[in-house]
Amino acid sequence: MSGSPDPAIQEASVLDAWAxxxxxxxxxxxxxxxxxxxxxVGVPDLSRLSKQTILAEWxxxxxxxxxxxxxxxxxxxxxxxxxxxxSELYFLCRSGVRSLAAARAMTAAGYQHCRNVTGGFExxxxxxxxxxxxxxxxSAGLPWVQS
Length: 147
Known about the structure:
Blueprint (H helix, E strand, L loop, with lengths): L9 E3 L1 H10 L4 E4 L3 H7 L1 E2 L9 E2 L14 H11 L7 E5 L5 H11 L4 E5 L18 H4 L4 E2 L2
Parallel strand pairs: 1-6, 2-4, 2-5, 5-6
Antiparallel strand pairs: 3-7
């Protein structure tokens, strides 16, 4: 794990996130992209780990308004699934910006181990201005499904 622009939030590569999700039963992956992104771009598939990615929009499409109830909704989901404020939480978005904001919000709410997944699901643009090929979950060959 490396340093983050926010010292309260550690960054993790997609491979580090996968490794922790694999070995730690309480670790969770939280995808904070929009419903449109989940539907049209796909979602991480944790089924071989007997887990499900938590889908929790940070901002809604098309307004880009931050969900004022994000922390309470996610907290409810985590508690329902047996999560605690000590659980390892990995936040993922397209490229790592929204996930950092979501990780900050959950850290402020008392969650102790919020990680921002660098590269996100699709990563940065390549020379042809396409995502999913130079960095991120898809580029690393980690499992994902079209929803």
